[in-house]
Sequence to fold (365 residues):
Amino acid sequence: MPQDRTELDHQKWMHRCIQLADLGKEWVAPNPMVGAVLVHDGGVLSEGWHHTFGSTHAEVECLRGWPGEIPTGAVLYVNLEPCAHHGKTPPCADLLIERGVKSVVVGLQDPFAAVAGKGIARLRAAGVDVRVGVLEAECRWAQRRFLTSVEVERPYIILKWARTADGFLDQQPRISRTVQRISTPATDTLVHRWRSAEQAILVGSRTVVNDDPSLTVRLVAGRQPLRVVLDREGITPAASHVYDAQGPTLLFTGLQRNDISADQFRIETDTDPITCILEELHRRSIRSLLVEGGAELHTHFLRSGRWDEVRVITGSGKFDRGTPAPQMDGTAAMRRTSDTDLIELFVNPMSPITKDLQIDPEWHL
Ligand SMILES: NC(=O)c1ccc[n+]([C@@H]2O[C@H](COP(=O)([O-])OP(=O)(O)OC[C@H]3O[C@@H](n4cnc5c(N)ncnc54)[C@H](OP(=O)(O)O)[C@@H]3O)[C@@H](O)[C@H]2O)c1
Fold:
């Protein structure tokens, strides 16, 4: 059905809000990503976005950019419901009312209990015209980390691995304790961007033993996520990079380690380690987790059904012998190339978050 001009305009400006919100991706968590645009007569008066955790909200920044009177007919677009509570900053809904904004278009109602429709209700009670649900599916995709945390009470889970063209994660037998390169330098840079967009990175004990990865963000400017290691038996050497001072580390262990300075969380032998990790990360307000392998750890996540996205990088080289990469059922929702590597994105059709999500067709990795 053809859409009218107003609806297309709403979508255009909501799309702009999502683009602005995305600028904060690496810095705002555990806050949601929000962008706002003030529009009048088809032109932008002002824009704003949430830059870092605890900083000025997008709507406030947007209105600060237009200190004059709000013209009649101006519309404020925002991808997430304006807040109605005193958090680190005063309620945005009150500011919109005070500044005389008469029309607001919201992408998504905020599921966070302190807001959850109260911002919209407060605006309407003050006579503001509020439209909710423009590009709602796209807004949910952009906000998937925050939504998973609030709605499912666990971090958003991305499993990521690189495999050779003949399907191996590594080459065996090992000759040195170092990461074996599968992807190109361009893809490595991309992976560092992925890392800085998530709040935690998890690896298995044998990956630390065999590869000694650093799990740091080095190739791009960005926030260093919490490094997380699962090693109940204490097989990872104390001199491993993951226990160095380049970033914080949390070790899930069955026994207290006195030879490392990393934060430690005790796992009882009768507990499922994945449940334990997800509960503890959620308790720490960690909204997203990038699992970087190896094969066994990925397989446990896949079998448990607790994953939202899988990103598979396929390089052009071959190893002939090694640890086989996990097999994905179904077709990739998205395929991209990065130099000579293929990157595929799978979304979990059973995940309460990704099953109804609409992936941004412009997904830029
Ligand atoms: N190409 C890539 O992208 C990539 C990435 C990472 C690693 N690798 C390669 O993968 C190899 C290591 O892989 P791997 O499969 O041998 O070992 P791994 O996955 O690194 O280590 C096995 C992990 O499985 C965990 N585990 C055991 N039982 C579990 C359960 N019931 N639920 C959840 N987790 C459980 C273990 O925990 P406990 O130790 O506590 O038992 C351990 O952390 C390395 O040689 C490395 O080169 C490749």
